Amino acid sequence: MRFLPLFLSLSSGSAVLVGSGSAAIAKLRLLRAAGADVRWFSQDADIAGHAGDIMLAKNYAGRIDVTIKEPLETDLAGALAVVSAAGKELDERVAARARSLNIPVNVVDRPDLSTFIFPAVVDRGDVVVAIGTGGASPVLARRLREKIEAILPSRIGEFAALMRRNRERLANVRTPRFSVRRFWEKIIDGPVGAAFLSGRTAEAEIALHRSIEAADKSRDDERGVVHLVGAGPGDPDLLTLRALNVLQSADVIFYDELVNSDILSRARRDAEQVFVGKRKGQPGMAQYEINQRLAAAAKSRRCVVRLKGGDPFIFGRGGEELEYLQHAGIPVMIVPGITAALGCAAESGLPLTLRNEASRVCFISASVADEKKDVDWSGLADPLTTVVVYMGLSSAAAVQAGLIAAGRNPKTPAAVLARGTRPDSRAAVGTLANLSAIAASVSEGPALLVIGDVVARSLPWKAANASQLEAAA
Ligand code: SAH
Fold first, then answer.
1. Residues 378 and 408 in one domain
2. Would you say residue 52 has pLDDT above 70?
3. Which of 88, 147, 278, 462 is catalytic?
4. Whose CA is nearest to atom 2 of ligand 1?
5. Which residues have any ligand 1 atom within 6 Å of their CB?
C-alpha cells in the first residue's frame, strides 16, 4: 500500500486550488461536492467562463474566493489541502511551498510531486467507495469504479442515512447483553434492508423502529425473508442488478429446472442450493411442499431466494408462493426478471409490437390445451395481435388448429424459439399452417411459439428466406 486511504473532512477549513484548465475544474467540482471552502488561484482572469456553472450552483455549502495570481507560501498557510493543476513549472513551485508548510498537496498527473492522490470515487451520499491504484493507472481505477457502481444497490446511501438517523434511538436500548453490532447486521441482512433497497423505504423505516422497540423490550423480533427472483431466460448477463445483489446475500436458494448452472454460479459461494423443479420424465416437487419449505427456511431466519426462470409472475406460480408466504406472515420481496418472450424476441430481432403490423401482444400458456381444456382462441384471431405461447412445444398442433378454426390466417408467419439466450439456442420459422411441423423440427425445449406478421421481421425468418433464395438461384 503506497498511500493510506482516509476520508478527509473539508468542512472545517479551506482548500487551495491552483490552475484553470479542465483538470482544475474537475477538482473544483469534487472539492465543492465535499462542501469545501475553496481558495482558487488562477493566472487566467476569465474564471467565470470556465466554471460559471459550478460557482453559481446553489446546492453547495462552501464558498469560493478567486485570486488572479500565483499563490505564495503565505497564501497557502492554514489550508487543509492544496490541489494544483496549473502546468509544469508553477505546479512544481506550488508543490514545494505546500510541502515546506507540511500541507497535503496533490498535483494532477504528478504522483512524484504529490503527498496525496485522488481516488476514483463511487459517490452514493453517505456511502462512498474510493478506489486507488497508487497513481499507477487511473484508467484501471475508473474501470473498477464502473464495476462497483454496477453492484452497489442504488439506494445504499439512503439506507446508510436511515441508520444514521436511528443511531440515537438505539443508544437508549437498555437490554442486558445487547449487541449493537449484531443488531445492525440483522437489519442490513434481513427484511428491513431487503425492503429498503427494493424501494419500500417507508415500510422499512417502520419495521426498523419496531425492531428497535423490540430490542429494548428484549423481545425476539427476528424473521427471515423470501426473495422471489426472476432469473431471466437463461443468459446470466440478463439477470437484473437487483437479482445479482440478492443472489450474493442468499443463505439458501430454491431453484427450478429453468435455472442453469451459469446463473447459479453467480450466487454466493456458500449459499445452499436446493433443486425443486421437474427433471425429465419425473414429477416435480408438489407446489404445497415448495411453499412449506420456503416458509420453513424463512422461519429459521435465513435469507431465502426462490429463483425462477424468466419472471416470477409470468407462468411461474410466483403468485401462489407470494400469497402462501404472505399468509404465513413472512416478508416477501419480488425481483422481476426478463421473461422468455422478451429475451427470445430480443435475441432473434423480433419486434413483438410494430406500428401498423402488431398493436397487441398476448402471452398465453398452452398447458391448458394440453390438459384438453378449452382455450378461447377467438380473441387471438385478430391479425394485429402477436401471440406468444409458453409451454406450447408439445401442443403446437392444438394451437395451430385452434387459431385457424378461430379465423386466424393460416399464412400468418410463425416461429418456434427454443432455449432462447442460451448457448444452444435455436429458432425455426414457417407459417401457422405448419406450426406443428416447425415445433417437431426443434429437438428440445424450453421453447416458445410465436405467431404474427412481425415474425417476418425477425432474423431467423430473414436468414431462412435468404437461403431459400440462394437455393432457387
Ligand atoms: N416464468 C417463466 C416462464 C415459465 S413457464 C418466464 O417468465 O419466462 C416455462 C415456459 O417458458 C417454457 O415451457 C417455455 O415455453 C418458456 N421458456 C422459458 N425459458 C425459455 C427460453 N430460454 N427459451 C424459450 N422459451 C422459454
1. yes
2. no
3. 278
4. 310
5. 233-234, 258, 308-311, 314-316, 339-340, 344, 390-391, 417-422, 445-448
**Model pLDDT, residue 48:** 62
Ligand 1 atom at shortest distance from the alpha carbon of 338: 7
Report, as an integer, the average pLDDT of 278-306: 89
In a domain, 128, yes or no: no
Can 69 be counted among the known catalytic residues?
no
Please name which of 67, 66, 72, 15 lies closest in space to residue 38, comparing C-alpha atoms.
15
pLDDT per residue over 97-134, tens digit each? Answer: 999 999 999 999 898 999 999 999 999 989 999 999 88
**Residue 278 annotated as catalytic:** yes
Residues 6+ apart with CB under 8 A from 20: 42, 43, 44, 46, 47, 50, 51, 86
256 vs 294: CA distance, rounded Å: 13
Q: Looking at the structure, tell me whether residues 67 and 29 fall in a common domain.
A: yes
Nearest CA to ligand 1 atom 11: 390
Q: Which pLDDT tens digit goes with each residue over 149-171?
A: 988 999 999 999 999 999 988 88
Query: Looking at residue 52, which CATH number applies to its domain?
Result: 3.40.50.720
In this prediction the pTM is: 0.76
**Structure confidence at residue 220 as a pLDDT band (50, 70, 90):** low
Number of domains comprising the chain: 4
Does residue 402 sit in the same domain as residue 455? yes
The answer on 297 and 246 residing in a single domain is yes
CATH for 334: 3.40.1010.10
End-to-end CA distance of the chain: 68
Reply yes or no on whether the pLDDT at 370 is more than 60. Answer: no
Lowest mean pLDDT among 244-258, 267-281, 368-382, 411-425: 368-382
The Cα 333–Cα 106 span in angstroms is 46
Report whether 166 contacts 188 (CB < 8 A): no
Give the domain extent around 75: 14-118
425 & 450 share domain: yes
For residue 203, report the phi and psi dihedrals to the nearest 5 degrees.
Answer: -60, -40
Determine, yes or no, domain membership for 398. Answer: yes
Residue type, 37: D
Q: Which residues contact 374 (CB under 8 A, 6 or more apart)?
A: none
CB 226 within 8 A of CB 306: yes
